[in-house]
Amino acid sequence: MSQEQVSPTTIYNLITMKSNPSQRRFAFIIGTIVVLISLLSVPFVRIQLVELQAYQPAIFSTVICFELITAYVIYSQFKINRSPSVLVLVAAYLFSGGMSLVYILTFPRVFAENGLFHAGTQTSVWLYVLSHTGFPLAIALYMMIESKFANVHYSARTAKRLGLYTLIGVVFLIIGLTYITTHFKNQLPIVLSQGKLTPLFIYGLGLPMVFITLLTLIVYYKRTKASTVTSTWLCVAILASMLDVAIILCGGGRFSVGWYVARWNSFVCANIVLAGMIYEFTKMYLSMTELFQQVKDSKDKYKVLLGESQLAERKISEQSDIIERMLESSHEAIIMCDTEGRVIFTNRRVEHFFERPLESGERLSSYCLGMKTSDAAFEEIIDAYFGQAIPPFRKRISRLTSKGETRHYECYVNPISGETEGTLRGHLVGFRDRTEEERIDELKNEFVSIISHEIRTPLSSIVGFIEILATRAVTEEKRAKYIETIHKESLRLSNLINDFLDLQRLDSGRQEFHFQSLDAVLLLREIVEQWQGKDDHEAELHTATERIFIQGDEDRLKQVFHNLISNAIKYSPGATKIDIYVETDNGKVLIKIQDYGLGIPADALDKLFTRFYRVDNSDRRKIGGTGLGLSIVKEIIEAHHGKVVVDTELGKGSIFIVQLIEVDTE
């Protein structure tokens, strides 16, 4: 037997549905009316009334229909809870309905003179006895099984099979009893003689039937207290069945007051449970209709709310995606922490800045090990902040990378407030890379130092010699020498200012280039001739051919090569020669300026063409310069779609190679 625990929700099961006081009160009124009618009829039970031949067939037709319908309704409840006790109740009403059917079919002068199935005068009476005895016994069996197997529930498959077995069993029982009372009619004890009940019926059968039914009613009511819908109306049905037999025992023949009242009680017994169930079914249907409407309304509201919720969810999701993309595309490393300093969210910039990922749940102070501020270790400041020892701050920090480079950052920390005033949801920590700013600051300081030196030096010379010429009498030879020095320093100062102006024009994009076809050999020859003998250096030009053409701005290219030749002479103080080569290579013109001087350190090569950069070497510091020349050279050459590279060896000199595009003039 397949079993399961009783479901706590039984509102749709009439067998277990609790009855309310009004239902019990109404059942009590019906029961009282049945009792009063029966008691009031007792003095008049033997009085004969008008013979209504159709009364008994009509009554029993409804009785049979009601009992079979009741059996079906109870079976529908059995399909819900699948309890064995309910199946017994189904069998009771099937038996009562079936016995009522064969009773009316075998009753004399209803369908045949002596009844159908070759019935005798005793057949219908014995069927009546068996029917009215079987019903209370079935109720007693129902109580016993309900008490013993209250928590037993069949599986759906088992319940269906047992329901079929019960129907077949009841049908065969009715057939068997009918067969016995018809085919053995002459052997049956006589309980009806000349239309009157014999003492055997009254004392041997009738009174025991009344006692059994009354005892069943008392026990059933005591056990159930009429607490359910079914038990309430079943008490009335048992009462009506008992009164039916009791009225019969009081006497009265066919069509007497007692006979009519007894048939009335049979009618009440048959339909009262069905009527109660139909009434509850109607109430249940109305409740379910209201519930369905509420569910339908709720469903419509739910659809509206679901649509609004989905729309809001999409908007929130879109906003979250936008915020996340904004955070991911930020140039700052952004970290969100809880109130204890544990990480909740980071963007990818964090790993890019600090060379390792920051895991969710990790303490920020642990991640910041190795970072420094000007006055303390940064992790100590972070711990102090999350410990509420210091307020929100903005600090400059630095760290050493795995490559040995020093990176600089600015860190700011702000609390995130909740919706309620005074509540704290977490903290937002941001890191901004300011390494480039530090480099620019260094360049700016270098620039100021260079400018102060490079401008002050020629100005000092100019002012000094002018003061001498203005206040002293000097020889003509010295005057000429002083004026030459003033002119030289003025040119130096002018060139310095021109470098700054060129740089500004290149930065702003206002530098104009006038491109034309130029003979590179001729251009370099003119420039080299201007540098012959300068600072005791000889410049020699080497060319593969006499004419090599390029497309360029003559003035700007002269500025480039003058700068490079000047540097070659300046940074080869111990040498007396520089070489200039003009070559071609697969559509390119290569112009090389080679010196035999100091050379350039390897660690300076990647910064050589940046502005204000000067190689940090005492020998070169004495030579001077602004650090702008090579940056201007690079920008002019790149504007000509070329490039400039350097090949150098420390202590042996350098070769600056300018690559330009060769053009065909033919």
TrEMBL record:
InterPro entries: HATPase_C_sf, HATPase_dom, His_kinase_dom, HisK_dim/P_dom, HisK_dim/P_sf, MASE4, PAS-like_dom_sf, PAS_4. It catalyses: ATP + protein L-histidine = ADP + protein N-phospho-L-histidine. The keyword Transferase applies. Pfam families: HATPase_c, HisKA, MASE4, PAS_4. PANTHER family: HISTIDINE KINASE 1 (PTHR43711:SF1), TWO-COMPONENT HISTIDINE KINASE (PTHR43711). This is histidine kinase. Residues 450-664 form the Histidine kinase domain. It is an enzyme of class 2 (transferase). Keywords: ATP-binding, Kinase, Membrane, Nucleotide-binding, Phosphoprotein, Transferase, Transmembrane, Transmembrane helix, Two-component regulatory system. The keyword Metal-binding does not apply. Its EC number is 2.7.13.3. The chain crosses the membrane at residues 26-49, 55-74, 86-105, 125-142, 162-180, 200-221, 233-255.
